[in-house]
Design goal:
The structure holds two protein chains of two kinds. Chain A has nine helices and no strands. Chain A is mainly alpha-helical. The termini of chain B are far apart. Classes of the chains: A mainly alpha, B mainly alpha. The interface between A and B is medium-sized, with 23 and 25 residues.
Chain lengths: 175, 324
């Protein structure tokens, strides 16, 4: 009983933390601050994974998203001078309106899906998904093709980034 | 209930010993560096300067705490805390001894045993990097920002090689749990199977904790202390503590992964663990007195073009040998 109550309290606190930090992330003017709130949101969702018994997923979430990806984002933000950007007044542009409409539609879509499909499942299968062994086995057997396709896609993106940043070295005479 | 009390007692004891080690590590480093440079090192406070860490702590505590006018205050205050907290969290999964029986209870000498212990270490090590990066950025100082940028770039580059160097050990042990890895080394230490991985790990670890010859983020000669340039008083001391705590933790992890952890003949396990960790820590101080600082582009070149392919090759060779 005590364990259940403790789990419930942790769930409520971390969910609130995730929601609040997501809201803070989109409302901050300072880009570094919003990046930091994003890290907090990632950490909160990692704790939610832990509550589901998915230790492996939780750790990967922190290493990849909270650690590596956000560190790269902060690295890029620090390179750019944002002082001018921060002084800009709120301006309503067409792209912003379109973005808001799409986001609202997407959220409605998510709510509808959640409302019409019950997300109840068996606890037994869920608990083993967070296991390193299970994920490895699944990635290399049932989901081998999507896994390979994703890795080729990532490789292509990486080569593309290198090509873009090395423009001069490749087309020396043209420029 | 008994489990809760046991855990709390373990946490307090480990925390106390760990922080004591960190405090006296500062003295050891100054003494050894002094001897390397043919000086005495601190010897004024108490016999052999033994009270020096306490004096330093009191001094840091009572100094004026300055926050620069154009600093980002909340981030400036949080940054040192992140550094210390993440370094302290690392020690939670390291097994420093076998089980003992006390008051009729079997007590395992580790705070906790996670199934994903190694990943936990990487997770908290990567979160700890935010302390240095944010501290430099939030100071609102050119040198601070350059130090932060260097720290971010260096850590991203060496984290890859660090994780790859450990993969070989994980493959041999077949587990991500640190206690299983230690138990598998009962007969032969992993350093025998993975000698190169151990060297790669130590090099990457030195880069990860910003230690000479990779101490680019705080290179005194060019950045005037880099990321911690605006920090004073206890906040500076927190950065300092975090750095040394990280050093001890990294050496303890190396002991666990490569040197058989607490395993050893004759002496009790905890003592073996301390001896092995101490040797690695001593090595880190010794090399600081020996090697000059590398140039920044050389560090990046070394990380991406030499260390990363070598660690990848190590993983490949280990996999081929294991498949045979």
């Amino acid at each position: 009983m005590a364990v259940l109550i403790a789990k419930w309290v942790i769930f409520v606190v971390t969910s609130l933390l995730a929601i609040v930090s997501s809201l803070m992330m989109i409302t901050r003017r300072n880009t570094i601050h919003s990046a930091l709130f994003m890290v907090l949101a990632f950490v909160a969702s990692a704790i939610l994974y832990l509550l589901l018994g998915c230790q492996f997923l939780a750790m990967i979430q922190i290493i990849v998203y909270a650690g590596a990806v956000m560190m790269l984002v902060i690295f890029v933000i620090m390179m750019i001078d944002l002082s001018r950007e921060e002084k800009l007044k709120m301006k309503i542009t067409k792209t912003k309106v379109a973005g808001v409409i799409i986001s609202i539609l997407f959220m409605l879509f998510l709510i509808l899906v959640m409302a019409f499909n019950s997300v109840k499942g068996k606890m037994g299968t869920l608990a083993s998904i967070g296991d390193a062994k299970t994920i490895g086995t699944l990635l290399f057997s049932r989901f081998l093709l999507p896994f390979e396709v994703a890795s080729v896609l990532l490789l292509a993106a990486m080569v593309g980034a290198v090509m873009l940043s090395k423009k001069k070295a490749f087309g020396g005479e043209d420029q | 209930m008994a489990l809760l009390i046991e855990s709390i007692v373990k946490v307090i004891v480990v925390f106390g010993i760990f922080m004591g080690c960190v405090a006296y590590l500062t003295l050891l480093e100054r003494k050894v560096l002094g001897r390397v440079q043919v000086r005495y090192g601190p010897n004024r406070v108490g016999p052999f300067g033994l009270w020096q860490p306490i004096a330093d702590g009191i001094k840091a505590f009572f100094k004026e705490d300055l926050i620069p006018a154009n600093a980002d205050k909340p981030v400036f205050i949080i940054a040192p805390m992140i550094t210390v907290a993440s370094a302290l969290c690392l020690i939670a999964v390291i097994p420093f001894g076998d089980k003992i029986t006390l008051f009729g209870r079997t007590i395992y000498l580790r705070i906790t045993d996670l199934d994903v212990g190694i990943l936990y270490l990487f997770a908290f090590a990567s979160l700890g990097e935010y302390g240095v990066v944010l501290g430099g950025w939030a100071s609102g100082n050119k040198y601070g920002v350059i130090g932060a940028l260097r720290a971010a770039a260096q850590m991203i580059s060496y984290e890859l090689a660090l994780s790859l160097s450990v993969i070989g050990v994980i493959m041999i042990s077949g587990s991500l749990s640190l206690s299983v890895i230690v138990e598998k080394q009962a007969h032969l230490w992993n350093i025998v199977y993975q000698p190169f991985a151990f060297v790669f790990y130590m090099v990457c670890a030195l880069a990860e904790i910003n230690r000479t010859p990779f101490d680019m983020p705080e290179a005194e000669a060019e950045l005037a202390c880099g990321y911690n340039i605006e920090y004073s008083s206890m906040k500076f001391a927190l950065f300092f503590m975090g750095e040394y705590a990280h050093l001890v933790a990294v050496c303890a992890v190396a002991t666990t992964l490569f040197l058989g952890g607490w395993q050893g003949p004759f002496l009790p396990g905890v003592l073996w663990f301390f001896i092995k960790t101490f040797i690695l820590v001593f090595f880190c101080i010794w090399e600081r007195g020996t090697f000059p600082r590398l140039r920044y582009d050389q560090i990046m070149h070394f990380g991406w073009k030499i260390l990363l392919p070598l660690t990848l090759a190590n993983v490949l060779v280990t996999a081929i040998v294991m498949a045979l």
